Amino acid sequence: MTSTSTDHRAASDAAGSGGLRLLDVTLTLGDGDTAVTALDHVGLSVAPGEFVAVVGPSGSGKSSLLAVSGGLQRPTSGEVHIAGTELTALSDKERTAARRRHIGFVFQQSNLLASLTVREQLLLPLHIDGRLDAAARTRADELIDAVGLAHRAASRPHQLSGGERQRAGLARALMTSPAVLLVDEPTSALDRVRSAEAVQLIAEQTHQHGTATVMVTHDTAIMDAADRVYEMVDGRLS
Amino acid sequence: MFLALRDLRFARGRFALMGAVVALIAVLGVLLSGLASGLADAGISGLRALPLTHMAFDEKATSEQFSRSTVEQEDWEAWSKAPGVERAEPFGNTLTNAQVTQGAEKGEQVNLAVFGMTPESPLAPRPTSGKGLAEGSGGIVITREIADLGVEVGDVLTADKSEVRLKVVGLVDETISYGHIGVAYADLDTWRHLHYGLPGDLPEAALRQATAVALTLEDGADVTAVEKATATRADSKETTFGASPGYTAESSTMALIKGFLYAISALVVGAFFTVWTVQRKPEIALLKALGAPTGYILRDALTQVVAVLVGATAVGTAIGLALGSAMIGKAPFSLSAPAIATSSGLLIGLGTVGAVVAVRRITAVDPLTALGATR
Ligand SMILES: Nc1ncnc2c1ncn2[C@@H]1O[C@H](COP(=O)(O)OP(=O)(O)OP(=O)(O)O)[C@@H](O)[C@H]1O
Ligand SMILES: [Mg+2]
Predict the structure, then answer these.
(1) Which residues of B344-373 are buried (b: 16+ CB within 10 A; e: fewer)?
(2) Cβ contacts (< 8 Å) between B283 and chain A: which residues?
(3) Residue % of chain B over a pLDDT of 90
(4) Is A93 helix (H, G, I), strand (E, B) or coil?
(5) Which tens digits make up the pLDDT trace of B77-116?
(6) Is A60 touching ligand 1 by the criterion CB < 6 Å?
(7) Contact A29 CB / ligand 1 (< 6 Å)
(8) Complex ipTM, two decimals?
(9) Which residues of B touch A59 (CB under 8 A)?
């Protein structure tokens, strides 16, 4: 993939005024005695083209942070802004559309559809959005190449290794050139070299397309690649 | 459709199993509707073939009208003068046993469903061979079922007990029956001899009687006045089918069996898609997380449902038609395109309803679960 400044500017404009912004977000899960404060007055701002890493112990609220940022879950209070729109003010339907257009997810467990080939996994988000055209197919092939799955393009998930599945999931998230990319422990199933390549690809995507990227990780190598590193403890971000 | 058809291919084993069940039900559906049409033909094809819209019976005959009703000459005269009545004429109906007394099959026993009418009436048969009816001639026109016993034009039949002689003058080469008995057409006087079991001269009163008044009414004609004046009741043609012996019981039994069949099919399809949808929950959550609107996923799932149902029903119907064609002639069986289309359509329609109920749970899947158990 080549990086040009024109690319960068165009994409930043598309991302609107502001990548990802969380204002005083609190998320309480469960109720009564079992209530858990998964996010405790979290504030976070990730500019377009910025690569942020979040670390923290298990159960500290990292996945919750991504769920709220990506509009999968409404926070109990606070605001989430994505690409200039306030996600927390949207209806369920509008949030679904926002996820489709502006957000890329890479899930903690690789989440692929059993009946689709790697190539079709990548085309799916564009089919959902009614934008499946020749350009999309070209981009899918480029991304499959970039994650090193060219020889696996026609394979289905059950024929792939854990690491290959994670790379396919990453490639899918990048297909729509999302304004915000949310990545949950992407490299757990990858060896050192693959892991470095994946992070390299995410960093490239972030800078080249002006994506605001938040990545949850334990991997110190990834932390080095990030522009900023936050730590999450008991729902608080620092 | 992007996903639906790929899922179909990927899980073809499971879908084939369910498709086979639907296909078998479709086979049964074709055979049952063939049997139902066959039974209906045997029961009422004679009535169906008559060019009329209604029949007026003695108002006291509320069931088995054809054996219980008698109408008088004044009645059909009153009916023919009433407003809204295009045509009214006497119609006689009687079941008779006879024996071939002259002809190749001499001694053969024959059951006849005798329809009596005036020879000039449009109700009278148009024979494919031989001649038509003539008043007072004692001639009858037979139909294929009777001809199949070896009875030919020119033969003479003698009615049991009454010894009334019937000369076969013509043949309508069609299977036309009433109450599972082949129809024979006769002029009114001949019919009266058979009906009253009298070979010689008929009493004066009998000469002015028939079973019912065959009517052709204008659309929406109000005939309550003439019904009242003649103490008769006009039943629609379809209602008269119910007066044919056994017809109502047969058709309601068939309808009941078919109803159960469709219900079973809808439940099987519903159960399959319920399990399928529950199994697919993680994938549905993922699709929603990727921003697929619920409508997109529902459309996709319904495409799959319809594809499976249409495919399986088509295969089953084809097999049913092949089996059914082999049964024609060996059983009261007839293949009617509208009946088979209805049967297949209902199978697909009700299957879809069953599946829609199952697939609806897509709406309730929370995209958040795409983050997985280990979030
Ligand atoms: N549906 C729920 N109801 C109640 N509590 C929940 C629910 N889901 C998560 N939690 C709790 O919320 C807290 C934050 O969970 P979260 O999944 O965000 O942690 P995490 O930092 O991603 O952990 P890990 O590193 O193990 O993935 C945890 O204490 C968890 O037990
Ligand atoms: Mg987590």
Answers:
(1) bebbbebbbebbbebbeebeebebbbbbbe
(2) 113-114
(3) 67
(4) helix
(5) 999 999 999 999 999 999 999 999 998 888 899 999 999 9
(6) yes
(7) yes
(8) 0.87
(9) none
Half-sphere exposure of B287 (CA within 13 A, CB side): 27
pLDDT tier for residue A11 given thresholds of 50, 70 and 90:
very low
- Classify residue A34 as exposed, middle or buried by CB count within 10 Å of its CB (0-12, 13-18, 19+): exposed
Tell me which residue of B68, B81, B86 sits closest to B225, measured CA to CA: B81
The residue whose CA is least distant from atom 29 of ligand 1 is: A59
DSSP annotation of B158: E
Contact A125/B370, CB-based, under 8 Å?
no
> Is there a contact between B374 and A107 if contact means CB atoms under 8 Å apart?
no
Could you give phi then psi for residue A53, rounded to 5 degrees?
-110, 145
Token pair recorded at residue B340: 């088979």
Rounded Cα distance between B29 and B80, Å, is: 44
> How far does residue A80's CA lie from ligand 1's centre (Å)?
19
Contacts of B154 (CB under 8 A, 6+ apart): B103, B167, B168
Q: Considering only CA atoms, give the Rg of chain A.
A: 17
Are B25 and B347 in contact by the 8 Å Cβ rule? The answer is yes
Whether A59 lines ligand 1, by a CB cut-off of 6 Å, is yes
**Considering only CA atoms, which of A44, A48, A84 is closest in space to residue A61?**
A44
State the pLDDT at residue B205: 83
Contacts of A69 (CB under 8 A, 6+ apart): A20, A22, A44, A80, A82, A180, A182, A214
Bridge pairing between strands B139-143 and B165-172: parallel
- Do A100 and A178 touch, CB atoms closer than 8 A? no
Return the higher-pLDDT residue of A190 and A71: A71
